[in-house]
Amino acid sequence: MKVDLGIWSKLTQAVIVLVAIAVLLLIGRTYLPLVRQNETYRREINRLDGEIQKQADISKELKSEIDALRDDPKTVERLAREKLGYAKPDETVIHFETPATNPTR
User: How many Å separate Cα 61 from the centre of its chain?
Assistant: First the structure.
């Protein structure tokens, strides 16, 4: 046997629905900043991963230059000629300078 309480049963259902909505909104409001912070951290991780890759490429390039200087005497000779201006005996070294531009009046 079901007793009809009239408006009270409908009000009770409405209160239950409103409490459920309030709980869901509270949960959403609590976790939304954490979700945004997680997205920020994810972007920072991706940026740092790109920086790590760039530095790894630079490291690989420098390691190959070091290996070339260690193992290849022609590389050492070329660098001594270019950077230090060294020459073999009976060689003439000619340096070309870029002309200075005249300032406009």
Answer: 20
Q: For residues 87 and 81, is the Cβ–Cβ distance under 8 A?
A: yes
Cβ partners under 8 Å of residue 85, min gap 6: 93, 95
User: Phi-psi category of 72—alpha, beta or left, where left has phi over 0 and alpha has psi -120 to 50?
Assistant: beta
Q: pTM (2 decimals)?
A: 0.53
68: alpha, beta or left? (left if phi > 0; alpha if psi -120 to 50): alpha
- pLDDT tens-digit series, residues 54-73: 999 999 999 999 999 999 99
Instruction: Yes or no: say if 98 and 91 are a contact pair by the CB < 8 Å rule.
Output: no
Q: Please give the angle made by the CA atoms of 89, 93 and 96, to the nearest 5 degrees.
A: 170
Distance of CA 49 to the CA centre of its chain: 5
